[in-house]
Amino acid sequence: MAVPDQESVSPARASQLAANLASVRRRVDEACVAAGRSPADVALLPVTKFFPAADVLALIEAGATEFGESREPEAGRKAEDVRTATGRTDLRFHMIGQLQRNKAKSVARWADRVHSVDSLKLAQTLDRATGVALDNGDRAAALEVLIQVGLDDDEAKGRGGVAESDLAGLAESIAELPNLVLCGLMVIAPLHGSADRWMAESARIHRDFVAQYPEARELSAGMSGDLEIAVQHGSTCVRVGTAIMGDRPLISP
Ligand SMILES: *Cc1c(COP(=O)(O)O)cnc(C)c1O
After folding, report:
1. I need a labelling partner for 199 at 20 to 30 A (CA). Which of 92, 188, 220, 227 fits?
2. Whole-model pTM over 0.85
């Protein structure tokens, strides 16, 4: 989706976004308290895919500094527009959606973190692209990555995600790549079945993983509909679109 001509949203939209952001943050905080966790341990990542740069600017006014995006070239353009408009260097953009290798080059220019690494080939391509972006001065730091774990034959169903049985091998290879920093895991709970069961499964996989990679503690899990359950099961980052932004326009991918 193109960035609209207008550079700022209406006051009504701005206050709606600020109110939604605060109310989702409250949901996260309450879920933390209920789970006996510190609210400081769970990040709220607003997901702004399909929404214009002006909405991102309004969220920044409301205090947000990190954003999740999932589609190219929309994401790269928006990140650049927002960085240019604000002149800020503390904003962070996360690629959370399934990523084709031919998009790695552009993603390596704007993304601080990729949540959706699910193959060695993709990791190697991102590593090389990040090296080029570093050499060209397009980025200043290594690329943080999470391995997306498929919970339900997701790979076979086209949703991405590595099978649990392949996780250890992939992590070992990624840890060797010079321009990537392995930070943890990402999961998407399948829509069918019990979210509680999927998140418990994620928590178990994450515990085993962290035992091997104590530095890679992130668990990106939970969205608008299941963030409380995800927090209960150890999520360190909930990715929330609809509950903050409203319904996404129905555009086929
Ligand atoms: C769009 C998206 C989200 C946000 O989903 P909501 O249900 O709108 O909160 C989270 N994670 C990923 C990977 C997404 O693509």
Report:
1. 92
2. yes
